[in-house]
Amino acid sequence: MLGLWVILALCGCCAAAVNKPDPRPDPKAISVHPFTVQRGTAKTVIVRGSGLQGTNGVFAGAAPFHIVIEGVEPEPKDEGGHKGPVDLVRMRVEVAADANPGRYPFRLITSHGVSNAITLFVSELPVTAEPEGSHDSPDMAVPVSPGPVLFAGRLSHRGEADFYRFKAKAGETLTFQVISGLPQIAAGGSGATVPNFDPSLTIYEAGTSWFDPSRLKRIAYNDEPAWVVGKPTDAYLVHRFQQAGDYLLRVEAFAGQGGPDYSYQLKVVPGEKPEDLPPVSRATDDRAFTRILGADRLNELASRGGDAAQHPSVETYRAAAAPADAAPLFKLPGTIVGTIERPGEIQRARFQLDGPRDIAIEVETPAAAPPYFNPVVRMLNTAGEEVATNVFAGKGACSGALTKSLQAKTIVPVREAGTYTIEVRDVTADFGGPDFRYRVQVRPAIPHAGRIVMSADHVNLARGEATSLRVVFDREEGYLGGIAVSAEALPPGVQALAGADFEAEKDPPSFAGKRERYEPRTERAVVVLSAAKDAAPTPRPQVIRLVARPVSRGKLGPVLATKSIPLMVIPGQ
Amino acid sequence: MKRLLTLLVLPLAGTAGERFVSLKTVPAEVVLSGPRATQQFLAIATDASGMERDVTAEARWAVSNPALASLDGARLKAAADGRLTVTAAYAGMKGQSNVRMEGAQITRPLSFTREITAIFTKHGCNSTACHGGVKGRGGFKLSNNALYPKDDYEWIIKGGGYQVLTDEVKGERIPRIDRKHPENSLLLRKPSMQVPHGGGKRIGADSEDYRTMVEWIRAGAPYGGGQGAQPQLVNLTVYPAMAVMPDGGRRGLLVTAHFNDGHIEDFTHQVLYTSNDGDVAAVNADGVITAKRKGETAILIRAAGQVASAGVGVIGPAIADYPAVPRSNFIDDYVFAKLRKFQIVPSALSSDSEFLRRVCLDLAGALPPPERTRQFLASRDPNKREKVVDALIASPEFTDYWTFRFADIFRVSIFSNGLSSKFSEAYWEWIRNNIETNRPYDEVARERISAQGYSPASRHFLPYNQIGPPGEVMAEEVRVFFGRRLDCAQCHNHPYENWSQDQFWGMAAFFSRLFKMGPVVFDHPTNMDLSSKDVDGKIELLHPRTKAVVKPALLDHSPFELAPDGNPRKALAAWMTAQPYFAEAAVNRIWGLFFARGIVEPVDDFRSTNPPTHPELLAALAKDFRGHHYDLRHLMKTIVMSRTYQLSYVPNGSNREDVVNYSRSLPRALDAEVLLDAVADVTGVPETFPTAVTEGSSVGQAPVGTRAIQLRDPDTFFSRFLEIYGRSNRGAVPERGGKPNLSQALHMLAGDTYAGRLEAKSGRLARMLAAGASDTEIIDEFYLAALSRLPAPGERDEILNILSRRGGREAALREFVWALLSSREFAENH
User: Fold this and answer.
1) Rounded CA gap, B773 and B448, in Å?
2) What kind and span of H or E run contains B628?
3) Among the four residues A293, A483, B65, B555, which has the most C-beta atoms within 10 Å?
4) Size of interface A-B (CB pairs under 8 A)
5) What angle, rounded to 10 degrees, do the helices at B615-627 and B330-341 form?
6) A427·B570 Cβ contact <8 A
7) Among partner residues A211, A344, A401, which is closest to B366 by beta-carbon distance?
8) In chain A, what residues touch B522 (CB-CB under 8 Å)?
9) Average model confidence (pLDDT) across chain B
């Protein structure tokens, strides 16, 4: 057992500086083209990236494919428009016939260590490569045969748009999806600098124009109905064709980019099919409107605070569009549910508080969510005065101007017993509908560890080197315990140490405004991984496991979060 | 024969050989009510052509009962109650007016609000150039045009200096009147120059106005005029609304004041007159206009708190055989009637090629392709013009072009729409969808004004991802949908209009609770405060001067329902789109795009002091627009199917100088985007648009074949051509005014837009050369592509001659195409 428990006191950590290793090329995979392979087939694909010289294998965990490196060469200077040296890794992918379709991340193993992960898609459909040559005009469109089809295409240069020609029957519904080969690859901390590729999709029919008889008529267009940073931007469009005939599909980049990394997968499927989305993170996030506020919520939270005591289950009540004095009553803890059906509708429910208590008000939007449905929740006293709201008013960090944000949780210390009203409405008076559903849970505050973020993606350690991995967690609802972080399954010669790091001092934030009601305190833990000078190099990545648990009242709680990351010890500096 | 008969039956009249057929006095019927009531009369003689001449000064005036009233020239002064007639005699003809007088002997004390403010206005004391300026003048401040008589009264009675940003008084207060010794009052000594006065002598010590002021001070300087509320002046009307006269002619104005109790008074001698263009017509203090030279202008008339205007047209010599001009629709009735009145003959109907090029550029922002031009010119279908208009309006290019136009007006720009190209695109798509589906314009306006949430139209409230100041946001909506600029009233009462600072902030208050939360725009409910000990969350709009909380108020003070936590802008949007201003502003804006000038010009600067050139036409267009459910396509078709629109740009002897009466098509420079697309079309080489704010920082590129007018968010595409030729900056409501400059000339000589295209192997010229086209075929094709016409025989021969003398056929043809693209005929829509 090479793992080492590291328990960090949250106060008074010594600021032991950890020397960073000298800059060494970190293997960085940017894109793979094509990135979709049909199961039961083999395909040669090319990975573009930097620091990939010396690639000798692939680390793909339990992915259902076998990859053989066929060669590595530098990209000729005049291609790609890149600023630094780019390596091309040619590899043969052989996918098992019984592979489940889906997304499979893989990494390259190089003489400098393991790379970041990029994704190969395994499909049940035959993958048709976009034919050679230009397809950026209707007369050069790629023909699409009926039935489910999948194309592996690429926008090779800026401003390129690929046309596809297909037939549709009268009344037929087709689903179109374009998945980008450049998703948010910088999110894993690999430092990739390539801009994301946000694909757009347009359907045309033959048009008539007095000016140009061949001008196409746009009949459908996709772009994200809600554009929110961090959300997928792949193109998805379901269209029912009124008339039988020939149609054209155009694939382009929203911002007109193009180049060797701009690969895409185009899928055309009969009928209305759900969008193929990347797997949703199951990590706890107290501050997301989409988390589920279940009946066992109190116990869930208590366990995250290291509290093994049993709490009652939370009952559900229905709110009503009634005045405060006629609003239905509910008991604490309780979840009130309702739907803002009509624009401007306000729904209410009341509860009795017997004495001073710290209350948590949590909001879930099971259907429409912000920015479409923006549930404003207020807690009012018997005089109709606002005691709490989930609208956080602060000051803009730049301008100092009043800013507001809608929060999924509000903590309010209530000092007076009495009857309180929970009021729910949309922030606008103009919208409502059957999908404007809400669940508002009102309960006693339960101290616990909230969101835990382990941002490390992979670790490459030369012998004698050390590196630090940061674990950030939220102290929710007054949680005063600690977090224990352990690194397990370390290879021989690598040890984990307790550490601390710091950030350069910043000016104190200009915003205030009862911030603690709306934002948790954030703390950091640091694990330092150190390879001994005589540590044996690892020919392949070793999967190590970071584990976080709460420490409260002198006891270690259950596992709250884990993350497996590949680690390699490489020969020398 | 008819003409001869007319000459025989008409009396010989006039003093200079003029022949008049009738004489009338104006007003024909009038009631003089109250003490000191007066009425100015005019005597108007009309000749056989319907032309009027003011003969007030030449006529002999008489009253039927001198015991009841006296005449001072043509001005009647009431002395007792009763009825009488006023008669004017001139050149053997008589005109007569019936007058009833009532309350002539009632004693009514003088009041500040009635008499004194009127004197200030009449003598210009409260004009912006004098004490009505923002800070007043010489330490004495009056509200502009007596908009705030109470404030004015206080400054006069109690003294003190006006402060711009506060209503507090600074320093010692010295009254400007002396009740014990009225003649010693500064209020009198200054304007009569008994003490030095920066504004010079304004009121003579022997004048009636001086005596009125003395009498008022002696009476205790009352604010009101005795018991009860004083009737409020609510409107001014002017006769004639349009004075048409020959060069050197004179014409008097009659100004009538309408009060809120229903009674009217003659204000001809109680107002201030100024001419918008003194070179065309001058006006004296009694409202008598003197024509100076051929042209049009307006006379501005100010009374306390009110502004009005009268148009003046100085016409040239009468045209003996004014031709009959055919009409196509109601637009022509108004335009041609005025042209006839002004003795301007409209140009002939445009040629087919002239019409085709113009209507394609105006409806679709594109030149007609050569093959379409050939078909159109060859067609003998009498309805071919209407058919091509219908085809153009149904074309996707129409949608492109009008999306571009409204993206300009509505400001689609990454910087104006939340700093996100996703937002600006969503907003652009909203506009495009509205154009494509021909959504009624009032619906579009209502949605834009009241947009909330994450909706595409709400993106326009997010310049630099912030909600703009309420005053600015409101002023933009009013400018876009009302065609009016309230901005001046933000800091002070509008100097050229009746808008007060209070009205400005009342309107601004509709936008005062507009807030953003992340990407969501909403109106903050009035029942939510959000203040805390750390953050002042109050959302209140304070009047900048009085510091009072301003509540939403409509411009016309009409009441409206406002839910405590509702969207106040919905009430505003409903009110705005129901106002006459809305339709008038819309049709004027569209009209301006087809005629190079609006009926009110600038198209978004409606005000009493900037009257329309054709008020009846404007009203008729607006009525038609409303009647057709605010259908923009119907409006555009109505405009382009008028003969007025289809007149040739070639002037005739009578309309060469006319630029305001639509007597011919006025050539206007193509907008930068349209010109660039035209160059691409003629050369057959599409433009490429890199996505970059500055040159060389490109990260992407618009798809090949994207036209300049199709760019969703022009700010994100770099184009040297568009910069040089003046694309609009959508940081504010755009005012396009691209003027020729040296950079354009240099770009034309050496820029890629021209030189690069001419050498392109994929271009029209290269293709024709490769296909073995003759010089004549090439010349004809490029003429059709660029000018929508074939060269005149002389032109073609001259070009062929030049080509034959030049060595290197391809190079010579490139020069020919360059010359064509550099010509004014190409760069203009005419």
Assistant:
1) 53
2) none
3) A483
4) 158
5) 180
6) no
7) A211
8) 374, 427-428
9) 88
Question: Would you say residue B198 has pLDDT above 80?
Answer: yes
Please check whether residue B388 touches A, CB under 8 A: yes
Is the Cβ pair A256, B536 closer than 8 Å? no
- B701:A159 CB<8 A: yes
Judged by DSSP in three states, B4 sits in helix
CA neighbor of A409 nearest in space, from A382, A366, A440: A440
Does pLDDT of B76 surpass 60? Answer: yes
Distance from the A256 Cα atom to the nearest Cα atom in chain B, whole angstroms: 4
User: Closest Cα partner for A428 from B520, B430, B446?
Assistant: B520
Name the pLDDT band for A307 (thresholds 50, 70, 90).
confident
What is the amino acid identity at position B405?
R
Among A430, A511, A518, pick the best mutation site for testing chain B contact (most B Cβ within 10 A).
A430
Task: Answer yes or no: do A344 and B705 touch at CB < 8 A.
Answer: no
- Minimum-distance CB partner of A402 among B396, B537, B570: B537
Which two structure tokens, joined as six digits, stand for B573? 């949007």
Phi-psi region of B643 (alpha: psi -120 to 50; beta: other; left: phi over 0): alpha
What distance in Å separates residue A72's CA from the closest CA in chain B?
Answer: 28
Residues 6 or more apart whose Cβ sits within 8 Å of residue B112: B149, B152, B153, B156, B216, B221, B222, B223, B224
For B2, left (φ over 0), alpha (ψ -120 to 50), or beta? alpha
Q: Which residues in chain A are closer than 8 Å to B566, comparing Cβ atoms?
A: 344, 429
From the candidates B384, B539, B701, B713, which should be mutated to test the interface with A, based on the most A CB atoms within 10 A? B701
* d(C-alpha B632, C-alpha A448), whole Å: 61
Give the least confident one: A172-176, A181-185, B825-829: A181-185
Please report residues of B whose CB lies closer than 8 A to that of A210.
372, 388, 391-392, 394-395, 397
pLDDT in tens, A337-379: 999 999 999 999 999 999 999 999 999 999 999 999 999 999 9
Put simply, whether B696 touches A (Cβ < 8 Å) is no
| Burial class (CB within 10 angstroms; exposed 0-12, middle 13-18, buried 19+) of B205 | middle
Predicted confidence (pLDDT) at residue B719 exceeds the cutoff of 70? yes
Give the strands of the sheet with A409-414, arranged side by side.
A315-318, A334-339, A437-444, A357-364, A409-414
Q: So what's the pLDDT on residue B593? A: 96
pLDDT in tens, A15-67: 333 444 456 788 999 999 999 999 999 999 999 999 999 999 999 999 999 99
Q: What is the ipTM, given to two decimal places? A: 0.89
User: Is B828 a residue whose pLDDT tops 90?
Assistant: yes
What pLDDT digit, counting tens, does each position of B436-469 carry? 999 999 999 999 999 999 999 999 999 988 888 9
Q: Which two tokens stand for residue B598?
A: 């609006």
